[in-house]
Specification:
The protein is of the alpha+beta class and 168 residues long.
Length: 168
């Protein structure tokens, strides 16, 4: 077992400074991190790849930042993989809590904001969500296939940031 660990350390350059890593060592680290990340994300949640909410996007950004350090050697290899697994587990735990608790779900995922009611824009809510009238009209044409605000009963900025429309 000790011989295997020594071989593993040498092949991946686990005891080397980042500047001393070879192309092959960085490539092998990248392959291992790719496979480990694939396993983590598959065990975590399919939703995390959908970027459905900032909650899901945050996992991917932080996971990428943490695991990249294992590839370039700026953080301990095995510990970094473990840290990534903890992040995925935390995301899964928060998603489970959000499923069971509306209050917690709103806290981590946000809530939808109505920006149009019965064809009338709520400019204050639009401003708070950084949605211009031009953005609203574009999304209305592309997603609802409507060309007049008067045809909209309700439009909301959803937790994902997308605008949904309900026709009159």
């Amino acid at each position: 077992m000790n011989a295997f660990w020594n071989f593993f350390q040498n092949v991946l350059g686990l005891s080397l400074e980042p500047k001393d890593l070879t192309f092959v060592q960085i490539s092998l680290r990248g392959i291992i991190i790719f496979l480990a990340t694939l396993i983590m994300v598959r065990l975590g949640s399919k939703r995390s790849l959908a970027h459905r909410t900032p909650f899901d996007a945050i996992l991917l950004v932080i996971l990428a930042a943490v695991l990249s350090r294992a590839i370039n050697g700026s953080a301990p290899f095995v510990a970094t993989i473990g840290g990534g697994a903890v992040l995925v587990a935390l995301h899964r735990l928060f998603a489970l809590l959000a499923f069971h608790s509306h209050w917690f779900g709103t806290l981590v995922k946000g809530r939808p904001d109505p920006i149009v009611r019965d064809g009338q824009c709520d400019f204050r809510t639009m401003r708070r969500n950084h949605v211009s009238i031009h953005d609203l009209e574009e999304d209305m044409r592309l997603n609802a296939h409507l060309d007049e605000l008067a045809q909209v009963r309700l439009a909301s900025v959803e937790r994902s940031g997308e605008i949904s429309f309900i026709k009159k």
